[in-house]
Amino acid sequence: MNNVPRNFKSYRQIILFVVLFATLVLIVLTQANPGTELPNRDYGFYIYIGKLIAKGQMPYLDAWDSKPPAIFYLNAFALSLGRGYRWGVWLVEFIFLFCAVNASYYLMKKLWGMAPALFGVFVWLWGMDFTLQGGNYTEEYPLVFHFLALILLLSLIQQPRQRFFNLTLGALFSFSFLFRPNNALVEAVTILILGLTHVWRRDFKSFSIAVLWVTLGIVIPLAAVSAYFAYHGLFYEMFEASILYNFAYSSTQLSQTSPLTVGFEFLKLSAWGGLIGYGLVVAKLKKLFQSPYMPLYAVLLVGTPAAVFLSDLAKRNYGHYFINWLPFIGLLSAFAFYTLLETLNPREEGWQASNFPQISSLPLYALIAAILALVLTGRASTYVKAFDRLFTTSDREMRSPIAIYVDNHTNPSEYVVFWATNPGENFMARRNAPYAGLYYPHLVKSGVADRLNDAYLEDLKLKKPVLIVDMARLTIPSLDPAKREEQKSTGVYMSDPPDNLDEVLIYIEENYYLEAVIKDKPIYRLNGTSEP
Q: What is the pLDDT of residues 144-154, one digit of tens each?
């Protein structure tokens, strides 16, 4: 083996890491597999709006959601890539997550060496497996931006006047922000610590350069997006939906549970790995002041509690909110493992990652473990089933029985309502909803909600959907009057319904009849119409 050229060894290790990281991503993305899984609620919103965009329609006008536009346009691109199938979304998810894994490994290896870096990658991916919840979330895609921002921080510590790095750091903030404002926390804390570092060093020239170029990096993407929507006459609608409405949403708390408690429940042992690492950073803070990477440790110290606080302001207890913890969990877990290695194998210069010998066979062992996990957990078989569906059936991805029924019993030009808040079913059924207010009747009380609620009823009357499917959600008023009374008597009826809800329900009751019940879901057809 000693006669093997160094370049060959290097290429072999690169291939090992590529296969290892791809395998780990496949494990996590099993739950987003279009061949075996149905789109969840949020996934359905984004892919349905993405489909409309791909056909030339506009978010906030033809379909409303309370997110900035990045997730919608990324889904539109993914659907174009997948020729209208969710496989395009899965592929984009794979690329983003694979890039995030590589960026995180590069960052942690630079800080602490190979073994801690691999450990950190495993821990944060383990946490993601619990919080991804079917995938295609706004918190998922910016992970790569978060790790790149921290890589740029390390570079800017050494080259503080590098304009391009400063510009890119600002742009990464905007990219994360355009998926969901809370996501930009990592970049915001990184920018703050970078500025404070320049001030601490009294390097005011570097501080001025950073302020100018980071600001440009932030402004350019936001200005471009704003100009695009302003050109289409939708700037205020975008701002109202993605910013103003979310203030009302965040102030309407659904529970009293602490996000810290909920986060640990979702992330399980991976959260404890982050907590141990955080405690070790605090315990070793005096020594860490001597490290050239002290600004990054400062990001971990400030950013971790900030992520906990900002992850779920409305206390909705949605697991995907805690994806924003993962960059901190990964780095803190890697630091904890590094500290363990340092304790077992101390060196005079304990903070230099190069002091630990790199185990050349470690990636191979990790790959074998990952392949075994993929196979023994049954996740590999789901991909086999998916590819079998892809190449042997007319439906190349999983569709719900309800969506198949609707597809078979309506014409493509006819509107269909999935009551309530299930645009993923519209996507699977290949039928459009007749309204923009996809969230009806679950919008938080606000000016935009009142407007969308009024438009909802108007569109029902004007466009006359041929089918209305009651998805029989527990807390959504049933279309069956008897069941609504049962919901009220058992205390699960909506406590703060839209003002026009009764009018909507009466209109449906007077103009639709029960056609079928599929999988316990009543399907109502418009009076005077028949199956095609």
A: 999 999 999 99
